[in-house]
């Protein structure tokens, strides 16, 4: 084969491979992604956002920042209003009169380049507020400026409407304006709490009684900026600190909140809420169900039955006797479950209050050494927490 023919074949193969690669890239769904998706930026500082893309589009985008503003109040006469910014992203606007969303080309028209709004049929009524929400190219001094390379400069702390202030950035593909992606920014000035999280976020607890106060800790995770101390406030069903009806809660710095259950079972779960003292919009919630509880009167919930000889008949019963009841003294059905093989429960089920015997039996199955197990009494009624015993016995061979 001649060298010329080889070169031609090589060029054709390269062309085919290039076409395959191009087709593969074009076949992918065209999307863009912003990195990072979320960010916290101190007022006056900058943050770089990077565009990643898939499919047959370029990385070229236009950058916008969301604006929420009031255009003032209507007077019943004026129909034309000017937005605070120009170069608005098309169809990104929401224009409302008195809280009622208006329909473009039915209620109003808009010039996206000049940033003007004109009401078509009737002027907004006298004294009724007109609001606008939209994405403005490049942003503004009130929400921050973003340049063509994706560098965002947060606004000065003097214009923050809250601390932190939430800002939405949007990148729109130049190749296909239908393709866009948002990033979410928290602009802050220290000291500040950026976010709160409590765990568990859903749980249950037994009702308290006059002798036993049932308590539960809710671990708090706070993301804060600044060296100065910041505080939080704890609420139960919107009552700060709670009360005797829904239970009480006491906070320990930014570490935890300790909930104490009330003396009565509650028909509905209570809501625990922790709120930043600097910004009521920074909060976290958890729900707690306060249940009745099966309890054992006359015996601890950890029982050691002593030592037995393996396989030897027990002439003197090794047993513990107690009364199973509920903390509220309500009569409920119960049954013993997860019973160790060397233990007999008499009776195995019943209705509270009931006398129950736990008795050692069948030592022939035991091996030398300490044996531990868990004995659980379940209620047949939903919403009653189980009674759990830790039981143990030591076994040895006779010879």
Relevant terms:
399 residues, mainly beta, Immunoglobulin-like, 3 domains
Report on this model:
The protein is built from one helix and 35 strands. It has three domains: 31-188, no CATH class; 193-290, Immunoglobulin-like (Sandwich); 298-396, Immunoglobulins (Immunoglobulin-like, Sandwich), CATH 2.60.40.10. It has one helix at 3-27; strands at residues 31-35, 38-42, 46-48, 50-54, 61-73, 80-82, 94-97, 100-101, 108-111, 116-119, 129-137, 139-140, 144-146, 151-153, 165-173, 180-188, 192-199, 202-206, 215-225, 232-236, 239-240, 242-243, 247-252, 256-260, 270-276, 283-297, 302-309, 319-326, 333-337, 343-346, 349-351, 354-360, 369-379, 384-385, 387-396. With 399 residues, it is mostly beta strands.
Q: Quick one: biggest sheet?
A: 9 strands, mixed
Number of domains: 3
What portion of residues belong to β-strands?
over 45%
Which class of secondary structure composition applies to the elements? mainly beta
The percentage helix is: under 10%
**Helical stretch tally:** 1
Q: Please count the beta strands (DSSP E, at least 2 residues each).
A: 35
Computed CA radius of gyration, to the nearest angstrom: 35 Å
Mean pLDDT: 93
Annotate the secondary structure layout.
Elements: H1 3-27, E1 31-35, E2 38-42, E3 46-48, E4 50-54, E5 61-73, E6 80-82, E7 94-97, E8 100-101, E9 108-111, E10 116-119, E11 129-137, E12 139-140, E13 144-146, E14 151-153, E15 165-173, E16 180-188, E17 192-199, E18 202-206, E19 215-225, E20 232-236, E21 239-240, E22 242-243, E23 247-252, E24 256-260, E25 270-276, E26 283-297, E27 302-309, E28 319-326, E29 333-337, E30 343-346, E31 349-351, E32 354-360, E33 369-379, E34 384-385, E35 387-396
Parallel strand pairs: 2-16, 18-26, 26-34, 27-35
Antiparallel strand pairs: 1-4, 3-14, 5-11, 5-15, 6-10, 7-8, 7-11, 9-10, 12-13, 13-14, 15-16, 17-19, 19-24, 20-21, 20-25, 22-23, 23-24, 25-26, 26-28, 28-32, 29-31, 29-33, 30-32, 33-35
